[in-house]
């Protein structure tokens, strides 16, 4: 096997294309390896529309950037023909080593996509020695192409949550397939609320799915989300993840602490102690002492903290029936606890009322086994990527990275 055969194998050349010239230009920096490809005279080429073999009509010389040859830049040049198809007229053929309209070979773009998944686009562009905007255009092309191929006809259970795109309340809402173990992201869109639910429904329809197929939607207790789900997916059962229930009560406890701290001095480390549970191994000795003092003096902050702790008993239920029974008893105990004796406990009362309103959705978590825990884990990955890149110019670039990191779109890397 000679040098031309090795290069042809690397390029994936198919007949009638063959390497007819090589030239190393050492007068520029970095040095450039120029490879010329030619097809023998009289060769036939497939029509890009129907695949029928046709004779060349005319030729245009074109050049593509290829992967570096060691430390040297490499370029592929070929006279690309237009064919005259009897059914489709004069058409420029598609070359096997590059996609239509690109100035780079498929292998060069694949290398760029691989680097982008592991590092910021700007850093990847510097390594490849191309402008970062050029690399972004490559990324956006493959993300768009991947989404067009996405099949959502079997989608039945969806989880959704927002993630921060920029400062000042700029969000992206991410939708995942709860039944998909790997690469679960199926849709991401700027914003949050009812409108993103409608956009997802529209996207679902274009990708072969149907609103009637969605049996379950897992989300937080946001009113816009719940309202949007009711309008767009009326047959779906809403599931509220336990994480959001605990988060609601944790915020309520902290509000009580802030209100009480304005009137009296609380033990030191109270702020962090009440965020943890009594059995937590992360409790320091000072925090344990603070909890003991709060309970001994019966501070309102201690009452709020004990309410939050009782939720842990509900969470430990092993079956749906046990969860319903425990939740009923929890609410009964709260009704008998006389939490209205002080206005400082209003945040806790509001949290309990939230549980009552969304009780059916909370209990659904034990019935289906689905939750938004995976979304919370994915959110940390998305935010880490955003931090490495020091932010993104706009939500669309952030969304492209979300697709590359956690959706089936990433499989395109293996097929280019």
UniProtKB/TrEMBL annotation:
Residues annotated as domain Transposase IS204/IS1001/IS1096/IS1165 helix-turn-helix: 94-143
Protein name per Swiss-Prot or TrEMBL: ISL3 family transposase
Coiled coil: none
Segments forming domain Transposase IS204/IS1001/IS1096/IS1165 DDE: 158-402
Domain spans labelled Transposase IS204/IS1001/IS1096/IS1165 zinc-finger: 45-88
One Pfam match: Zn_ribbon_ISL3
């Amino acid at each position: 096997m000679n040098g031309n055969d090795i290069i042809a194998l690397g390029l994936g050349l198919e007949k009638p294309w063959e390497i007819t010239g090589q030239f190393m230009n050492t007068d520029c920096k970095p040095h450039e390896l120029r490879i010329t490809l030619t097809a023998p005279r009289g060769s036939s080429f497939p029509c890009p529309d129907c695949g029928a073999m046709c004779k060349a009509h005319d030729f245009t010389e074109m050049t593509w950037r290829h992967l570096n040859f060691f430390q040297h830049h490499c370029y592929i040049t070929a006279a690309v023909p237009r064919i005259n198809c009897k059914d489709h007229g004069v058409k420029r053929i598609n070359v096997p080593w590059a996609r239509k309209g690109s100035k780079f070979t498929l292998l060069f773009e694949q290398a760029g996509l691989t680097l982008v998944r592991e590092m910021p686009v700007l850093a990847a562009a510097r390594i490849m020695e191309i402008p970062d905007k050029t690399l972004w255009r490559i990324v956006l092309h493959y993300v768009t192409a991947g989404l067009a191929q996405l099949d959502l006809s079997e989608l039945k259970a969806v989880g959704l949550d927002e993630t921060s795109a920029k400062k000042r309340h700029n969000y992206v809402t991410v939708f995942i397939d709860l039944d998909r173990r790997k690469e679960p992201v199926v849709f991401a869109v700027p914003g949050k609320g009812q409108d993103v639910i409608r956009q997802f429904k529209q996207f679902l329809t274009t990708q072969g799915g149907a609103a009637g197929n969605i049996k379950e939607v897992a989300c937080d207790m946001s009113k816009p989300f719940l309202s949007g789900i009711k309008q767009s997916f009326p047959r779906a059962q809403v599931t509220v993840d336990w994480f959001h229930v605990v988060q609601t009560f944790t915020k309520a406890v902290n509000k009580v602490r802030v209100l009480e701290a304005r009137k009296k001095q609380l033990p030191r480390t109270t702020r962090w102690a009440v965020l943890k549970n009594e059995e937590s191994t992360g409790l320091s000795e000072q925090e344990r002492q603070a909890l003991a003092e709060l309970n001994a003096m019966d501070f309102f902050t201690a009452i709020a903290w004990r309410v939050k702790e009782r939720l842990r008993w509900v969470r430990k239920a092993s079956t749906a029936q046990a969860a319903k029974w425990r939740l009923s008893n929890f609410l009964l105990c709260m009704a008998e606890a006389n939490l209205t004796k002080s206005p400082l406990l209003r945040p806790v009362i509001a949290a309990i009322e939230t549980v009552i309103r969304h009780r059916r959705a909370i209990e659904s978590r034990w019935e289906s086994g689905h939750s938004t825990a995976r979304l919370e884990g994915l959110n940390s990955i998305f935010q880490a990527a955003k931090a490495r890149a020091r932010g993104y110019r706009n939500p669309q670039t952030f969304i492209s990275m979300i697709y590359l990191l956690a959706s089936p779109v990433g499989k395109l890397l293996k097929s280019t």
